[in-house]
Amino acid sequence: MIRPTCDTVASRLSAPGSNVNVQEHGRCSDLRELPLHVRFLPSESTGSYVTRLAERNGLGVDYLLEIVGEGRSRVVAPHLTELYLNGPAAERLARLSGRPLPVLQRALASLGEEYLLAGSGDDPVWKWPWAVTGGYLVRACALCAARRGVTEPAWLMVPNTWHVCGEHARWTDNSRDPAWPWIDLRPWPQVLDAHRRLTRLGRRMGAAGRALVADAFAVMADHRVRSLHGRAPRWFAEAADRLGERRAAPFLAYPAAVRVARVLARSERHRLTGALTWEEYRRWHAQAVAELGAAFGPVLTIWMARHQPQTSAVAREAGVRPPLAAPHAVVGALASVAQLSCLPGDLGAGTFDRPYL
Asked: Are residues 251 and 102 both part of a single domain?
């Protein structure tokens, strides 16, 4: 890749009619915003956004990144993997985009503080590696993108291998199947309704809610629970025939995961306020097994052991809140169901899917 010098950057971006002022102080430090902006897509990947920003302004992606910082890897297509920046490079991208950095960080999940590159000092640095820090790349809903004036394919960085657009009833995932880049959920209203219910639960309970949703999916992945399904319902068989069983696996789990998450929430709400005793917990377990089925008993017992109630009556009376169970204590913005849950089981992609993040 030919790297432009500061002189060539300055001459190109400071040309007549440009809104960019570049002065040669060290590494082209005095930057102003690019002439043309692009609208944000919620949860868009940094690589997707930078690619659109460069194309909108008639620049090559490699050229724009040369202005943002020093590259520690080659430029990669945005549908293959994610672009990461350190703090100084993120500041430079914010100046070029004409948006404050906090606004940029709210829009681009991989620009959050926990995903910024570390150990680079004050020099602006970017990397576009094959190994991602967290999350999966899925295609953005084309209808949501078009409403924001985006006509080309755009990519989101989301926690799991799938993403549901509740507004347009579309399911996208990390597959690159050209025949089915997205799935219309209208024939499967039970999946769409379950997604909306789980989203509301997550919003009401915050980090604890996200952990419960992850645990509910992990419960559904337990081998004893899976055997309970027996023959897959017709609607799932149709989805599996179209997409493949691995890709369609979250479809089958969604409706039942709502029931499981609600059952878990009944005890977890009380546990987190310090009001749950072991006697009440055992009663909850018996009721949960009666409601969900005997196959759920063993995995719910494991879940109870990892979500233990406050054992000290003094602490309960003092209002001391029990901690979230590990690994729920740290709920990363892009942590997947498998990473968030305290139970084994993964409904998402395997390692062989990583080239298509």
From this structure: no
Number of domains in the chain: 2
pLDDT of 326 > 70? The answer is: no
> Residue-wise over 257-290: b if at least 16 C-beta within 10 A, else e?
bbbbbebbbebbebbbebebeeeebeebbeebbe
Which two structure tokens, joined as six digits, stand for 305?
A: 């052991």
Residues 37-71: pLDDT tens digits?
999 998 999 999 999 999 999 999 999 999 999 99
pLDDT tens by residue, 250-301: 777 888 899 999 999 999 998 888 888 899 999 999 999 999 999 999 999 9
Summarize the confidence of residues 207-230 as an average pLDDT.
83
Give the start-end residues of each E strand in 174-254. 183-184
119 and 197 fall within a common domain? no
Q: Are residues 205 and 344 in the same domain?
A: yes
> pTM for the full model?
0.81
Q: Would you put residue 321 in left (φ > 0), alpha (ψ -120 to 50) or beta?
A: beta
Report if residue 163 sits inside a domain: no
Residue 283 belongs to a domain? yes
In the predicted model, is pLDDT for residue 12 greater than 70? no
Distance CA 331, CA 251 (A): 24
Looking at the structure, do residues 247 and 315 belong to the same domain, yes or no?
yes
Does one domain contain both 133 and 195? Answer: no
Q: Which domain holds residue 110?
A: 6-137
Q: Which of 91, 76, 64, 77 is nearest to 127 (CA)?
A: 76
Give yes or no for residue 316 having a pLDDT over 80: no
Are 211 and 348 members of one domain?
Answer: yes
Query: Is residue 176 in a domain?
Result: no
Distance of CA 66 to the CA centre of its chain: 27
Alpha-carbon distance of 226 to 219, in angstroms, equals 9
Q: Rounded to an integer, what distance in angstroms lies between the CA atom of residue 232 and that of residue 204?
A: 32
Q: Are residues 195 and 132 in the same domain?
A: no
